User: Fold this.
Amino acid sequence: MTAEKPVYHQSALSQFEFCAHAYYLDHIEGRRGLGNMFLARGNGVHAARRVNLRQKVRTYRDLALPPLLDVARDEVNRQVAEGRVDLHCEELDGLGPQAAAGRIIDSTRRLVEVDHWQLQRTIQPQEVEVKKKVTLAQWPFDLAMTLDSIDLDCWITDLKTSRTKWTQQRADDEYQPSVYWLGYRAHFGRNPYGFRHHCITASTARTGRVLAYTLRTSRTDAQILAVLERFNAMHAAIGKGVFPPAHQSSWKCSPKWCQFYRMCKYVQR
Assistant:
């Protein structure tokens, strides 16, 4: 009898490479980290998009904006109420839960508006949040993913929110398109036409310029193989119990960008 193969997600590979110890705390010890204002804001935008695109599969029409703003508001309130947001982060320090949620909601509202009017109107989803497992017979692991939007034009679409503008190079270097490419292939028996990042860039300020744009990318078998080799290196390290921390000078090793910073034994306090 053989042991069951582990199943990895694309986000796990990124997390492991940024800081393997954070991966350990998350996936091995099962600790719950704290997100910052920007993660909570992004989750709110994603929640609103999910509601609209799911119904758009049937109706071919976008919902009006007000109910989507309500969805985003409720998602932010939920995250704060459940203690999933670090209230001591730079943008929220000194605020109580209610005031912190209000600040995040104010910051989220404009992003939801821009996503609704400028990005979601450009696609017609065929399926939304498709959960897929890809069995890799020649590898000691399998992959799993949730394809955010598979569109009628045979493209995969995924939303990214960020503080700084994405470049084409960043879109091309992301692991996610390679993993989703395999998921699409397993789902339909053919390759997608391509992968597009719906990007929304917004500064820290609650009232500032919000930029929406689309970056398209493609994948070859050689590029997908390179990502699988990275998963294989991660798999080998996990098997040996090797989980080194990120360098302390890394941007990732900070209370703003690491959800496990405040509980990390490697942080010099």
Notes: Residues 4 and 139 are 13 Å apart (CA to CA). The two ends are 48 Å apart (CA to CA).
